[in-house]
Amino acid sequence: AQSVAQPEDQVNVAEGNPLTVKCTYSVSGNPYLFWYVQYPNRGLQFLLKYITGDNLVKGSYGFEAEFNKSQTSFHLKKPSALVSDSALYFCAVLGGNKLVFGAGTILRVKS
Amino acid sequence: SQTIHQWPATLVQPVGSPLSLECTVEGTSNPNLYWYRQAAGRGLQLLFYSVGIGQISSEVPQNLSASRPQDRQFILSSKKLLLSDSGFYLCAWSWDTELYEQYFGPGTRLTVT
Q: Which terminal residue of chain A, N or C, has fewer Cβ atoms less than 10 Å from its own Cβ?
């Protein structure tokens, strides 16, 4: 079965510093990987996806993610964090005709 | 453009009472529709999904049911709520050809007392 793991419950970073939110995956076949963000008391918003092609994927709000097949990882990154980036981030993989979400990682960016 | 609505935004119901949450999508036709539950502000659990009118797939056996009476309407129901049904319920839709890019509604926070 397809699955993703987000090993960190929470990531803390200072404003202006680079951020990384980790995700590893387990799939049979080629992975279709995604990142979503959830702001407090809101629905999720799609950030970016990896289907095929370049290993570095660019998405919304200046975020990018790096697909690494050998490490089975799909980490979310941003060169310079903003306080407004503070939110809950979900990694997901397409399993059949459904998305399988990780447990989520809280990102806190402090000024 | 497409929009997704959920109501009510918040709901407090006693144990044993019925439940009906509604989700509607505007600006698209024949969307895939999904109900998720998010407990304790973290992980998402897919409850039901639908690829068409009257077509419902259940992911987890539970106290809830779903129906799709119209193309862009998705309803989550229960005959008798349990305390464990409390949570944040999210509806989402996707194009039938792009299952992974899902668009979520604002959610309904249900508290069962």
A: C
